[in-house]
Amino acid sequence: MHLKRTITICMFLCNFVMGTLFADSFKGRLIEEGETLKRRLIEEGENLKYSIPGLELIANETQCKGLYLSCYEFNSTNQRYTIVHPGEKVSAHMKYKIDADQLESLHMHHFLYGLETYGPIDCLTHTFGVMDSEGSLDISFNAPEEPGIYQLCVCYGGNGINFTRATEAWNKDYDDSSKKIIGILIVK
């Protein structure tokens, strides 16, 4: 019995040490890859757009719980990506359509936009879920100060009273609040 317990403890410790070493090694590799990408971004600039990760995965139209977005573009370029300097003002334009049948009536529904790693920036639009609507939206925000590649996302913020409560949905992982990528922001 004592031998079995000793072997179990030794196996646990070996797995723990190996797991810790692997995790540290993996984390180090991720940091190194990120630094390499930042260097390439600074050196190659515009030419890097041909190897932007995930750009080909952005759909021409996006649906987010009753909100349909299409024709989104950055800085009037007709592109779903933009290359900017740290702190530079970024603007985007898109068309939208709200299908009220997919939303509860007489509740304030928030649709947020933001950068994946930074969180929500502001509300894209609101609706009470009573009638369909469509039009165009313009957003603007300042690019992060840190060089890198960022995903511009939209998210259904739920039917809350205010922006703060709606932002809680940003970090949740259930279907109604899943973030949808609508563009790539490259800060060099």
Question: What is the secondary structure topology, with strand pairs?
Answer:
Layout: H1 2-44, E1 61-64, E2 67-74, E3 81-84, E4 89-98, E5 109-115, E6 119-127, E7 133-142, E8 148-156, H2 163-167, E9 180-187
Parallel strand pairs: 3-9
Antiparallel strand pairs: 1-2, 2-4, 4-7, 5-6, 5-8, 8-9
Explain this structure.
- The chain is of the alpha+beta class.
- It has two domains: 2-45; 52-187, Immunoglobulin-like.
- Helices cover 26% and strands 37% of the residues.
- The chain has two helices and nine strands; from the N terminus they run H-E-E-E-E-E-E-E-E-H-E.
- The protein has helices at 2-44, 163-167, and strands at 61-64, 67-74, 81-84, 89-98, 109-115, 119-127, 133-142, 148-156, 180-187.
- The strands form two sheets. Strands 3-9-8-5-6 form a five-stranded mixed β-sheet. It has a four-stranded antiparallel β-sheet with strand order 1-2-4-7, with no helix packed on it.
- Strand 5 (109-115) and strand 6 form a beta hairpin.
- The longest helix has 43 residues, at 2-44.
- The termini are far apart.
- Mean pLDDT is 76; it is low at 1-23.
